[in-house]
Design brief:
309 residues, alpha+beta, Beta-Lactamase, Alpha-Beta Plaits, six-stranded antiparallel beta sheet, four-stranded antiparallel beta sheet, GAF, diguanylate cyclase activity, EC 2.7.7.65, Diguanylate_Cyclase, GGDEF_dom
């Protein structure tokens, strides 16, 4: 095994393919209703890293529930597996799967393999070995994820020179650098993330009627509000002029909705009026695309506010 989760996953899948055969081996991540392929060793199914499937349809979901065994040489003989919806999409004759868990016992994903043909009964004898491989991968994963906060702190220190002088937030260059590093983690571990785009409604009015010092004060109030609602691992940036952005790391849709409400309430508490857009980063939509989507939603909100006013 290697000391890197990605490299170790690939080495594990290659070893299992050589040991047990099977046309497809995968290391996956579960995220709500989604089952995300992080790494794949595919020889016939056409599965690639980044593809997303329904968790409820997968044999792995039933394995994790304890409804089916870790190794099924002939899935047709396992009622829990034989009735799975995945059979409507692909041919599965044999299955191997073990959970990948965090140190606290929560499910991260699975290490699994499938083949279109039933396999000899003797592959059941390999269960202890496959379970051990899953535990080793889980331990390596936990070590990497546990060190993520230290890595993020070091990254923030590296880009401290990219701060906006007025607000103390990161500027666009700092945002681009940190977002690129978070995107790498999202791809590697299947982390969800949320991007928020914020545009102040009244900056020009303050500058024109009360002077630039008043406009600067508005920008500072906005930055303080955004700092109040974000965690140390998140990224908050002044993208330029009256535009701000937030990157909420390892944030699923439900957490994102709650966070968006806090942003709105906190901005109001600082007497800041703003138009806001939000988008989720998920497989197939990277952080750069998520920012563009959040921007588009923010501009729609701004146009609606102007119509109402």
């Amino acid at each position: 095994m290697m000391n890197d989760f990605a490299a170790a996953s690939r080495a594990t899948m290659q070893f299992l393919r050589q040991r047990l055969g099977f046309k497809l081996w995968m290391v996956t991540r579960t995220d709500g209703k989604d089952w995300i392929v992080l790494f794949a060793d595919d020889n016939g199914y056409g599965v690639k890293a980044g593809q997303v499937y329904s968790w409820a349809e997968m044999l792995c979901s039933r394995m994790v529930e304890g409804a089916g065994p870790n190794i099924a040489p002939d899935v047709a003989r396992e009622p829990a597996y034989a009735s799975a919806q995945i059979h409507d999409k692909v041919t599965v004759g044999a299955y191997v799967g073990v959970p990948l868990r965090r140190a606290d016992g929560t499910l991260f994903g699975t290490l699994c393999g499938i083949d279109p043909e039933p396999q000899p009964e003797r592959i059941r004898d390999e269960q202890d070995m496959v379970v051990l491989m899953g535990e080793l991968l889980g331990g390596l994963l936990e070590a990497e994820l546990s060190g993520t906060e230290a890595v993020r702190k070091a990254e923030r220190n590296d880009v401290d020179s990219t701060r906006d002088e007025l607000t103390g937030l990161y500027n666009r260059r700092g945002w681009d650098m940190l977002a690129a590093r978070e995107e790498e983690r999202c791809r590697r571990y299947g982390h969800p993330a949320c991007v928020v785009s914020i545009d102040l409604d009244d900056l020009k009015f303050y500058n024109d009627t009360q002077g630039y010092a008043s406009g600067d004060a508005l920008l500072i109030r906005c930055s303080k509000a955004l700092k109040d609602v974000t965690r140390g691992s998140d990224v908050v940036a002044r993208m330029g002029g009256d535009e701000f952005a937030m990157l909420m790391v390892e944030c699923d849709y439900f957490d994102a909705q709650a966070m968006l409400l806090r942003v709105q309430e906190t901005l109001a508490g600082y007497d800041v009026r703003a138009s806001i857009g939000m988008a989720m980063r998920k497989p197939g939509i990277d952080l750069e695309e998520s920012l563009a989507m959040a921007d588009a939603e923010m501009y729609r909100a701004k146009r609606s506010r102007k119509v109402l006013n």
